[in-house]
Amino acid sequence: MPIAETTGGVERARFVSGSLLRHVCVMAGTGAIGLIAVFAVDLINLFYISLLGEKATAAAVGFAGVVGFFHASLCIGLTIGIAAVVSRTVGAGRTEDARRIGTSSLVLMTAVSVVVGTGTAFFLHPALQALGAEGETARLAQRYLSVTVHTLPLLGIGMATSALLRSIGDARRAMTVTLAAAFVTAVLDPILIFGFGLGLDGAAISAVVSRMVLAAIGLHGVMVKHRMLGRFDAQRLAGDARALGTVAGPAVLTNLATPVGAAFVTHAVAQFGPSAVAGAATIDRLTPVAFGLVYALSGAVGPILAQNLGAGQYRRVQEGLRDSLLFMVASVAVAWLVLALGQGVLIRAFSADGLAAELISLFCSWLAASFFFAGGLFVANASFNNLGHPLLSTAFNWGRATLGTIPFAWWGSHYGAAGVLIGQAVGSSIFGLLAVVVAFRLAAKLARQEAPDAAPAPVLDAPVAPTSPLVTPQPAAAATGPAASAAAP
Question: Can you state the angle between helices 20-50 and 200-220, rounded to 10 degrees?
């Protein structure tokens, strides 16, 4: 389903018509499989490492995961900007602009990830010390990260290409990109960790190969299958960067808030010993896999809302937000039930005992319910980022990571490691509820702007298409034929 022009004009943006709930289910479902595959890489690594029976090694993976979480959050923030801007441009019928932005986005993603990934290598020791890693645990975590941080550009390219595929509605291929990478990890981990006896080093090598596969399959999808990349235009790179930055900049800040909060929680838990860190690490890696559908909503809802915004269908934007929230509630309820019933299996699978087992049981039985509110925040953030108010997303995420985490986790630490996790859940729930209220008010205000004959341009923090002034979105029908082609510069 290339976005190239055909004899009939430009292909219709697929999300501006049809059932919104179906679009949400398809995009979130396929996106969840792909996203779960990304996080399953870390979960698989932790699973095989836990079989070694060494608490220090398992704790090292936990500390390394916090650093990796910062990297992944940076890439996710950039992909949010890519998906939002490209989706709006596709929805407005600006095919050539979409191609050019696709190329610029990959160039920018590569440049940023090279600087950040390699730059991190010089600060691994102080960073791990700040998180509370000591002795053998710190040494093992640093050795693992010294291999993986240099491959951040591969992770960034893979995630960027997946975002480009989602922006045109090819959720299945976007899923395949990350699913293949997880499959490689699942195959290589036992071979390298146990077969060759490499232990943690084998897990690091497996992660590198997995990222190579991620980038290769993603590039094939956007370059060969969909021809989404245009000729690189250095003169317009700065303009494209500004347009992407209006969404990606706040989105990066928004996503970095989560690992900042996680870093504080890890530091607070570390005082209770390696068993507590191992338990928290298991929860951190189990969460995005168990709640993959909820995590996927941030990327899945964005293109749906953005295409309808670009087409001027504001009431569909409001309905899409509502359907996304309903989908989230159902997903969390099912995941919570599965975790509660399967907690014994999980504890045995990860060889958890003592405090680690207590924390995992607490999460599966009770704390998983906090994702009703965390999921609401994910949906709200998607609406903020794609409806032209990314700074609100930044404000709510940093509010949750600071005011919603630090004082609550600090208070909880007086009652042990479990208190830290309980405090974090309570604080984040408050901000999730507030974000949903604001998101629905903005969507309702936007819906009132839609008129039967013409739709006025909404006031956005970011342009519909880069390097051009904000244009009045055309009705959905006008974005499908020769008129849409003529609108493109």
Answer: 150
